[in-house]
Amino acid sequence: MSETAQAPLRTEDITVNVGPQHPSTHGVLRFVVTLEGETIRECVPHIGYLHSSLEKIAETLRFGQYITNTDRFDYLNGLGNELCYVQAVERLLGVEPPPRTQFIRTLMAELKRISSHLVYLGTYGNDTGAVTVFLHAFRERELLMNMFEAVTGGRLLYNYLRIGGLRNDLPTGFDEQVCSFLEHFPPRLEEMNDLLTKNRIFIARTRGVGLLTAEQALSYGVTGPTLRGCGVSYDMRKLRPYAAYDQVEFDVPTFPEGDCLARHLVRMEEMRQSLRIVRQLLDKMPDGEVQADVPRRLKPEPGEVYERVESPRGELGCYLVSDGSDKPYRMHWRGPSFYNLQALPEMVRGGLVADFIATLGSLDPVAPDIDR
Amino acid sequence: MWGYVRDIWQGAKSIVVGHIVTFRNFWRPKITDRYPHGNADENWQPGPGYRGGFALLKSDKEGRELRCTACMSCARACPVGCIHIEGEGKGKERHPVSFYIDMGLCVYCHQCVEACPSEALTMTDEYEISGTSRASLVRDLAQLIAAGEGQTEVSRVL
């Protein structure tokens, strides 16, 4: 045997930049990935490219003025973010919004959840190489966007919720619009399921990929479909019902596998549950005012409050400190994407580089929500 | 061996199912519109309550022409401070001599309209609001009055 055959092959780790400008990073996100052959040894997320100083801006704006900014960080869940912020301010002020307001807020948040999961479905299809489903998902999302436009006047940036109420009541004919969507959407959802979820290639690309155990997920503070995909039933809507979630029945879907496919299935099932919630809300919708009496100048008592809602990506928290003036003294957002991203190195370590984007996409990150 | 055959069968089935879905969509109505001109719906309108450009409304009553009293409520309510007003006169005679809205700064939040006590300022459903320079995005008093010509109702307010 010759000497060269005995000496081990010289190998070298390669460091690859994924992003910041990469079509699959869902915004401006950068990952420094260390590769050994095709295996990922280490992945370091670099964030901050979309930092927009939303927490500091809050200190310069009055409580009512800040609502417009809440749409802008997790742009797929604008109405949910508004709900979180508005509820935090209402708790500071001790204001109770009227029941109809609570129902409309819940209705809009659930429609927004469906719309957000449709974006996830489309982009995840893109990430895993199934481009067709993107067009199908965005076609259905368009119907929801038209609904949001009819109610709030905006398609992406709503500024619809107000402290103690809403900007306006639902327009006439909105019920029929939602009812026709409820009839139209479930068969289309099954169609997208046929196209993507039941596809053999998709299953092969996601099953057993990006594994995360429940212990790891909890230790990183992972929430939302990512955590429910690890078999932990943790949903703010059930644990601490806010708005009108205590008046509706729904299930919290969980899948124990902890891989990309489980997270995908959780989101697909959540869309069906959201449809169920929307149907119940429409049936039970009470009449009445949509705006509680609040003073024109909002000056809460000094104190602090932490309000949590379930965004499509996980637990969204808003921490507000008031010093008695008409502006917040300090505000902090707990963005679910930020915490979910922390678990990404655990999920991709030891996996193939080809599965990296599939794993990242299964977290459904929104880059401005990570950076805020 | 049995697993191998089942793999092939399931793979073939999922491809066929996918193709059926795609094939079905050939006969569905087209949902895209050509823009700006073409065979699209010519009477297309933005949704009710759409927040586009701005307009200053005139009073129905004789006397003071503009409803605006230059009270600065809108400028104070604006989160980004894109409204600049200079007023003249006292009491009921007060009216704006210059009224600028910088649409490049505006976040289209509608809070100025809600703050206006005399229902003088409104947002319109004008949706082609881009410009070629920053200066062209600044709306002055004459442009705002012209945009409100013939309109008497403010955009939807609670």
Please characterize this protein's 3D structure.
The complex is a heterodimer of chains A (372) and B (158). Chain A is of the alpha+beta class. Chain A has one domain (52-370): Orthogonal Bundle (Cytochrome-c3 Hydrogenase, chain B). Chain A has 16 helices and eight strands. Chain A has helices at residues 3-6, 54-58, 67-70, 78-93, 99-127, 132-152, 174-197, 200-206, 214-220, 225-228, 236-239, 260-284, 336-342, 344-348, 356-362, 367-371; strands spanning 14-18, 30-36, 39-46, 161-162, 165-166, 303-311, 314-322, 328-334. In chain A, the strands form three sheets. In chain A, strands 1-2-3 form a three-stranded antiparallel β-sheet. Chain A has a three-stranded antiparallel β-sheet with strand order 6-7-8. Chain A has a two-stranded antiparallel sheet with strand order 4-5. In chain A, helix 5 (99-127) runs antiparallel to helix 6 and helix 7 packs antiparallel against helix 12. The longest helix of chain A has 29 residues, at 99-127. Chain A is globular and about 85 Å long. Chain A starts with a helix and ends with a helix. Chain B is of the alpha+beta class. Chain B starts with a helix and ends in an 11-residue tail after the last helix. In chain B, a hairpin with a 6-residue loop joins strand 2 (83-88) and strand 3 (95-102). Chain B is built from four helices and five strands. In chain B, 25% of the residues lie in helices and 14% in strands. Chain B is elongated, with a radius of gyration of 26 Å. Chain B has a domain at 54-147: Alpha-Beta Plaits (2-Layer Sandwich), CATH 3.30.70. Chain B has a three-stranded antiparallel β-sheet. A two-stranded antiparallel sheet of chain B has the order 1-4. Chains A and B meet through helix 3, helix 6, strand 5 and helix 7 of A and helix 1 of B.
